[in-house]
Batch of 4 targets.
Target 1
Amino acid sequence: MPPLLRHSLDYFLRGLLMGGADIIPGVSGGTIALIVGVYERLIAAISHLVSFGLGVVRFDGEAALDAWRTVDWRLLLPLGGGIVTALLVGARFIPGLMARYPMHMQGLFLGLVAASLFIPWQRMARVTLPFVGIAVGAAVAAFFLTGLPQLQVSQPGLLRVFGSAAVAICAMILPGVSGAFLLEVLGIYTPTLEAVNTQQWTYIAVFIAGAGAGLGLFSKILDALLRHYHDATMAALIGLIAGALRALWPYTTTDGTLQWPASGDPIGSVLALGLLGFAAVAALVWWGTRRQRQVPSSIT
């Protein structure tokens, strides 16, 4: 297989994993981007794409052309194709699995996300007391956010759709903060899935516009943080992932209060799935680390 085709297929498959995560409340596509090793490149590519858009809006052809040339299209196009494909397919199947087997799915996702804590930890050059403080603060914030009560809105207004999409898309590229969960908190998760499945194009167009606006602003900020404050940003990501584990605890009351398993709740099977998810991500982390050591000059 030609190298370009092999890499494109590789990124497409990584995009499938990210898109599948983005549609699950409690699981972050940004976490999966860290797991599969494309997080920093993805944020930089999105930032350059936003710079191109700004150049076009300002009628600055030279700036737009320079930004266009720096966009990592070899990553962005196949990865984006995988994300969109997974979102379209997952919108039909994943919510059904979550409805039929909520505790089992939560247990699996809890193990997957918990193991991903190793990834930003490995990317830090050193661990200092200030970084620990950042991680703790981010964990407290994520724990609070994931405990917010969820709203239910059957027919949200288009302005609400735009604003909610702008907020949720920021979470989708932040490891540990689930964009789908924020859509639930903001009350438009189910209506959005229904709009995709029933092809409500006006709703979809407004949602995409809001997501684009939010992503355009936030990606520039995040790219700057990763370039100038890398270790501090990684510490914050560790905290966000750890705090957001609250949203994946399988045993909760109807109002989201955490509790121990009640009589009749599945325990062994949920634990087994959690351990399976943890082991799968740990294996991916080990494989990625070994691959980087073997080919230190390559960017995958």
Target 2
Amino acid sequence: MKNLILAAGLLGLGGLTACGESNNGDDIVCGANTIKMGNECVGEDPTTCGPGTVLMDGQCVTQPRAYRQIEHLARPGINEALLIGDGFHSGYNATAPTFAGVPAADLQAVVAEAKTVLKALYLGACLLNGVVLPAGASPADGVRPAGITCHAIGPAIWVENSLAGVTLTQASQTAAQTYADAVFNLFIPDVMRIDTTVATSNYEVLCGAGAGAGAGLCGGRFLNDDTIDVTYDFLLNGAATCTRFGCGAPNQVNALTSDGVAFDNVTAANNRNNRVAGNAANRQQGHPAVSNAFPYSAPPQ
């Protein structure tokens, strides 16, 4: 009998100290998910709620979901092409399309980076015009970035300064800035602009009379549209078909305005608006035909 009483006492003592360090009320240190009430450790909450719920006012309610935007993408290649570096990409992806709430310093850095890249695109196209076009060609004969005729072509975009060396002319700086400002406003915020008055195709590109007057890629797109070629073509040639000298050798237009990757390298009919056909021997670039039924994209292979 004494052994039973002793055992019961030990069990009771163990029960009191299982959630703490001592059975002395002043010395109790309660374990995880318990709190001290009086001289005992009790559950932290009187109610244990199930997965996905939290205790509020004594009741289990559905826990609000916290969402985090990880990608800000409407047109492929905008963020990736205009912003260089993971820091810029991460900051851009975390913003709303309107940049609402973005700290001013961060916003200015993103805008400056994107416009620097755009100015380089413009000046590079104008420089190449003067390099590959036949002698006697004028700026109007070459590619026209975003539909804007180059202010000068070839080495004419530079001036030699005895102190600073070779630098851009003031006219080049001004023209490049004008191009960057106009195109930035067309592509940022990065949203799909759909003009229901034009055909559903990326090559219905002009919403206005020119890059400074609201032009843009606004016709929507199909799944098999070559969005990269279309974007390059607009940025570097205003989506013009070719220059006055055609698309023959040297094929300046296609060299500038295509990534050389086709939607489907095997079946040409599956491609829309690509400037250069892909390599049919590279089946890794090929893509099966899209479906006319939801979800429209072809099944995985």
Target 3
Amino acid sequence: MILLFLRLILTLFLVPTYLLGSPKHPTDPSDIRHRRALLWSTRMCRVGMRIFGVRLKLHGRPDPAALLQVSNHLSYIDAVILSAARPALFVTSTEVRDDPLLGRITRAGGCEFVERRSVGGLAGECERLGRHLKHVPVLFFPEATSSDGSKLLRFKPAFFTTAIAARCPVQPLALRYPSVNGEPFTRANHHRICWYGDMAFGPHLIQLLTMRRVDAEIRYLDPIPWRDDWDRKSLAEEARKRISAALGYPTN
């Protein structure tokens, strides 16, 4: 209970600090304030990791040329961990934007919002986001939702329109949580990290704040080089195959 109380106090202090201290994101991604805001988010996410008791291990490194990164998605804490590892422009849904709390936090962090429920609209918006790749790294969760960690969901090909428009390599990332409270991550305790389906946010956050330690790993996989014959479906399938293999999931 003492650990939970202390983390609640620190979290309640961190959120206003994050919101008030974040530089305003200009609409032009070439504006230097845009990069400063991403750096601010990274610094605050590193503080957030300490509050959550997360120990992060990195394998490999980001490829400077592969400004578009894609990762599997297990929980809301994924974005904190990935942002702590490298400043990046996160792309999330308009549903998150419309949430009273998460919307304010993600807007302060400079997230871009897309309407994922319309395939045609999503492809158009992702093509628009290609212009950001000239200035800052962009990160997608191509599953478009979080999972229970038992398998990799199908990737939405529309997300890869961004890479097609920018003609840039794509770097897949494999994110996993090897252990929770010193115990291996299994079907018995996966719900302590994974947030999916109709799980309520508040009770899950409280449970996460009671964890003494969470181990996380990010594996930067070899980038998928740009080819003139790539299309968004081929890119999505190749990225999913690489992440599935790295996580030990079936690749079909």
Target 4
Amino acid sequence: MPEILEIESYRQLADHAVGATITKGWADIYAAKKLPSVGTWAKAVKGLRITGTNRRGKLMLIETNGPTLAMRFGMTGVLLLDSDAGIEGLFYGPHTFKKDWVRGGLELADGRRLLLHDPRRLGRFEIEPDLNELGPDALTLTKKEFGVALTSVRGGGAAIKARLLDQSVIAGIGNLLGDEMLFRAGIDPRTPTGHLTPTQRDELFVALKATLKQLQKRGGSHMGNHMSARTPGGICPLDGGPMRISVIGGRTTYWCGQHQH
């Protein structure tokens, strides 16, 4: 599933379209599911000039001289600018292109096209998205914002893995990044957020920033230190302990039964 690092690469690709005028837009019934109708996208985008790009978590934004346009990429969505892809392949994606998997896009005056390629049909187009639904962006997250994100409303609160995946709390962290951060910080993903010690909070923030920085350089969320052990019967590459598997926050979670506690 594309996470914040993949969406940032899509945004950088979309940057190449800044300054271009949109002559046509189209969306199939899947990409238009958050819009009033299938034709809404085409009517809204025609004649707009792209003035910039932005991103909040996994939501890519296209700024124009009119409304802000947005794209969500679901589990297998990839942004294409003609034949150039925002990322070579997704860990859980098909790694191949099929015309039937193009869900819509934008045609530019210079002949280029920005396309949403999405086999699983979970990607969406939006117009003037509500950013208040999202927490602070994970790539620019400050330590103060992180502290607020980990504040429990009552009791111990949700498991820390579930808290990290809550996009209304921190925008952009997905399943792979969440597991990698907790693996590096040595924290059991089932730990109630409110039960983390001050030291654990500090170590998790350091791990969050380091994970994002290093995996961005390596090429994506699927390039973590423990990816080789994300399999039933896996062995921790750090200490040789058994990897455990559970569902936390609705996502399959892998962690080391020895050094994560």
